[in-house]
Structures are given as C-alpha cells and as structure tokens.
C-alpha cells in the first residue's frame, strides 16, 4: 500500500489529471449514447438498488399528499374502466379471458412506482420498480392518472427503464379531442422546458378554435390506449412558410415529481405487429 | 495519514453522501421559469481533505467519490469529471485563500479558517465546480444559456447548504 502511495506521488500531476478526466469523459459519452444498451441496463440495476432505498425514505416526507393522489388515481382508473372495454363485474386478474362473446380485453395495467427520474437533461429516463418478473416487456407504454410518461426501453428482473416523453427522440401520436377534430399529429419534445411539448404535423387547413382544447392519445400505436389525456393547447401558430400548425401543449403531469404510474400491457400487440410486418414484407 | 484521520474522512463522506442523496436529491427547488436546478454539497468532501495531501492522491479520492455520487444520480462520469477538476484546482484555490507557511497536517474546516476565508474558499471552489458540472451535463454549446443560468441558480443554494453542512461537520475535528 505504502509503495503504491509513494509511486503515486511520483506520477506527474498533470498527466494523472488528464488521464482521470479522459476516463470520466469516456464514461459520460458511453453513458449518454442510447446505444449503450447493456451498460444502461446494468446502471439501472445499480441506481434501482440505491434509488429504491432513497425513495423509501423520501416517501415518508410526503406520505399524506401521495395518499391523496393515490386515492385520486384509483377513482380516475375506475372511471376509465367502461371506456377501455372492461367488464366492471370481474376483477383485474381475470381480465385476460374472453369476457363474453362481444368483448375482448385489449389493455391491462401494471401499477408501478417511480424510483428514479430526471427532467433536466435533453434525453431523460425514468426507472420503475417493475420488471420481467411482473410481466413487463420492452416497448410497452407507461401512463399516469393525468398523462403519458414514456415507453419501456430496458427491462431487468425487477426494474425497467422508461424512455421519458421528455426525450428528444420521443414521438407520441396525439390528436385534439372533439367530434369534428379527429386529425392527428406527433407530439415531440425539443429538449428545453419539461412542462411543455410540441404537437406537430397537423395540416394548417384544420381549424383550432379554442385555446383550452384537450390533447389526447390516438391509439395508433401499440404503446398507449386511445383517449388518454395528455395536456391542453397552450398556444398555436403557423410558422411562416410552413403548411403545418405548431402547437405548444402544456402537460397535465408534473414530470418532475411523478411517483406512481401504470404500465400499459397491450394484449394484442404481438398480433398487430406481426400483421403489420407481413404487410410491410409485401410492399 | 494515520488510521484515525482515515476514519474521520470516511465518516465525513458518509454524512455528506447521506445529505446529498437521501435529502437534497429528493428536493425540488422552486424553478425560475423553466430552469430547474439542484443543490450540491458533496464537493465539500474534497474541500475538507487535509491540506498537505498530495494532489495526485486528492484526484484519485475525488475520482472514486465522484463515481459513488454518479451511481446514485445515474449520470456515470458527470460528477466524476467535475470532482477531478475540482481536486486538481484545489491547491490553486487554497493558495488564494490561505496565508503562507502553513502546517502540512492542517485540515481546512470552517472553525480553523474562520468564516470569511472559508466562505471565499467555498465560493471559488463552486465557481470552478458548477459551470464545469453543467457543461458536462449538457455537453453542447447549444445550451450555453442553460449552463450559465443553472450554474448561477445552483450556486446560490449549493453555497448555502454547504456552509450549513460545514458548520455541522466542524464538530468532527
């Protein structure tokens, strides 16, 4: 040990400084690249381990508020049952079965707690305390009581990492709620303000009347069920020379302190994807 | 460096780590507009290492303590790089705030430095640490405004909590 310390003191400080800095920078670049899939998976395990301990203590600080929120969330979910084609007379566990000759379950929900979260980077991820063991798979959508959260990217045994909608590569198929307004576009994030997202690709011949119009999911993907509220139109404009609206959407969810979420299990996802892959092959 | 000072240094790190990860990481400060920011007290650990410690050993300790913080923030490398930079800069900062000819075994602390020199020591250190940290977070000149504003906001809360923590840790020496 002493020999090591004596040797250490003889190394040129500047050289050591640049070596350590280079190692750190290498770690940063590897970590920030979405391709570092294997690494992120293992980092998720480490942070999941530390994060769940810290969250357990942190939860005590706002237990009361969380309880109220949870109650609210339960009532919201109950209200959604009929809309999502649930038969309200059976418990959630049996929903995978064919309920009667006309109704087949499409969406199931796995409740999860957020153990790690970020909103201040250009590419944000969340860690949830549900994983392969609970039936979570990659490419499942994640929603909260008041909005969408993201898509599951990496799954370990007990945790999963969700690519947040606050990620510069994230796109959510969204529309404006209303009978005569059934046009849709993509909801994207430019990497700055975690309270707002932008709804793009809506042609300008569509009229947007009210500022308080509700933005919701379309269901044109296997990630999110249709009709999940995302937020409200904050303002809209047509940039000069563009043929599309640029709509600023204020999110209902406060992404910075979200604690509870539901992972959406689309029972038909495999069937839809296989069918679409076949259609793609023919083209 | 004997075993009792090693023990003291480890104890300091545990206390600082607890405050950083268990408390400050969970706190959401009131954002200024869209600018969210965080408070960092963990650089204090590097500032409180003994004065006579060789800068090489300082950088190695900073490197591994930065890795531990990064593991909890899921930002592998970001705190590590910032901590190494701060450790490298520490002798230069100390030369600015300390009188000449000081004892090798001297350990900087709030009590030994008196309040004003210690405040200067903390301020200079965070002026090095925070801008570099946010540059590492954003990693692009496109976010120059974010880097500057967040550094300033974080600077205010970080110095505040660091001084409180330094007062608490003063009892350990």
Offer a quick outline of the entry:
The complex is a heterodimer of chains A (283) and B (173). Chain A is α+β, with helices and mostly antiparallel strands and 283 residues long.
What topology does this entry show?
The complex is a heterodimer of chains A (283) and B (173).
Chain A: H1 2-10, H2 13-32, H3 37-61, H4 63-80, E1 107-116, E2 123-128, E3 141-144, E4 147-155, E5 160-167, E6 172-176, E7 184-188, E8 196-203, E9 214-217, E10 229-237, E11 244-251, E12 260-266, H5 269-282
Chain B: H1 3-23, H2 43-47, H3 55-73, H4 78-97, H5 110-113, H6 115-138, H7 144-169
Helix pairs in contact in B: 1-3, 3-4, 4-6, 6-7
Question: Which two chains share the most extensive interface?
Answer: A-B, 44 and 38 residues
Percent strand of chain B equals under 5%
- The total count of helices of chain A amounts to 5
Rg value of chain A: 23 Å
Which whole number gives the mean pLDDT of chain B? 86
How far apart lie the N and C ends of chain A?
67 Å
Order of helices and strands of chain B: HHHHHHH
In quaternary terms, these chains amount to: heterodimer
Mean pLDDT of chain A: 77
Structural classification of chain A: alpha+beta
The count of DSSP E runs of length 2 or more, i.e. the number of strands of chain A, is 12
- What is the helix fraction of residues of chain B, given as a range? 55-70%
Shape of chain B: globular
């Amino acid at each position: 040990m002493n020999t090591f310390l004596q040797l250490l003191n003889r190394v040129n400080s500047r050289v050591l400084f640049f070596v350590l800095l280079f190692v750190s920078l290498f770690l940063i670049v590897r970590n920030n690249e979405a391709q570092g899939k294997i690494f992120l998976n293992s980092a998720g395990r480490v942070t999941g381990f530390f994060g769940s301990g810290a969250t357990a203590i942190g939860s005590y600080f706002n237990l009361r508020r969380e309880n109220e929120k949870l109650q609210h969330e339960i009532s919201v979910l109950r209200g959604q049952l009929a809309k999502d084609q649930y038969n309200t007379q059976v418990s959630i566990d049996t929903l995978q079965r064919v309920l009667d000759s006309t109704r087949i379950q499409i969406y199931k929900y796995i409740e999860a707690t957020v153990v790690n979260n970020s909103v201040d980077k250009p590419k944000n991820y969340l860690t949830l305390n549900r994983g392969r063991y609970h039936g979570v798979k990659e490419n499942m959508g994640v929603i909260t009581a008041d909005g969408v959260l993201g898509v599951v990217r990496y799954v370990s045994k007990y945790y999963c990492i969700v690519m947040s909608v606050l990620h510069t590569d994230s796109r959510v198929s969204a529309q404006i709620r209303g009978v005569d307004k059934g046009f849709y576009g993509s909801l994207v994030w430019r990497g700055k303000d975690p309270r707002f997202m932008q709804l793009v690709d809506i042609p300008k011949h569509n009229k947007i009347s009210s500022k308080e119009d509700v933005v919701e999911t379309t269901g044109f993907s296997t990630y999110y069920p249709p009709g999940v509220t995302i937020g409200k139109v904050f303002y809209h404009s047509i940039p000069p020379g563009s043929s599309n609206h640029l709509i600023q959407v204020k999110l209902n969810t406060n992404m910075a302190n979200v604690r509870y979420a539901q992972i959406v299990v689309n029972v038909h996802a495999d069937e839809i994807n296989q069918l679409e892959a076949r259609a793609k092959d023919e083209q | 460096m004997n075993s009792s000072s090693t023990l003291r240094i480890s104890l300091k790190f545990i206390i600082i780590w607890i405050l950083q990860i268990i408390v400050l990481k969970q706190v959401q400060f009131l954002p200024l507009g869209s600018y969210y920011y965080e408070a960092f007290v963990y650089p204090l650990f590097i500032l409180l290492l003994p004065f006579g410690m060789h800068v090489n050993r300082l950088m190695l300790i900073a490197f591994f303590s930065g890795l531990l913080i990064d593991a909890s923030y899921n930002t592998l490398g970001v705190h590590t790089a910032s901590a190494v930079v701060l450790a490298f800069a520490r002798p230069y900062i100390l030369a600015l705030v300390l009188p000449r000819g000081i004892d090798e075994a001297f350990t900087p602390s709030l009590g030994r430095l008196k309040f004003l020199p210690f405040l200067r020591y903390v301020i200079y250190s965070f002026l090095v640490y925070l801008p570099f940290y946010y540059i590492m977070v954003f990693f692009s000149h496109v976010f120059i405004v974010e880097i500057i504003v967040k550094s300033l906001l974080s600077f205010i809360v970080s110095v505040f909590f660091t001084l409180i923590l330094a007062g608490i840790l003063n009892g350990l020496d």
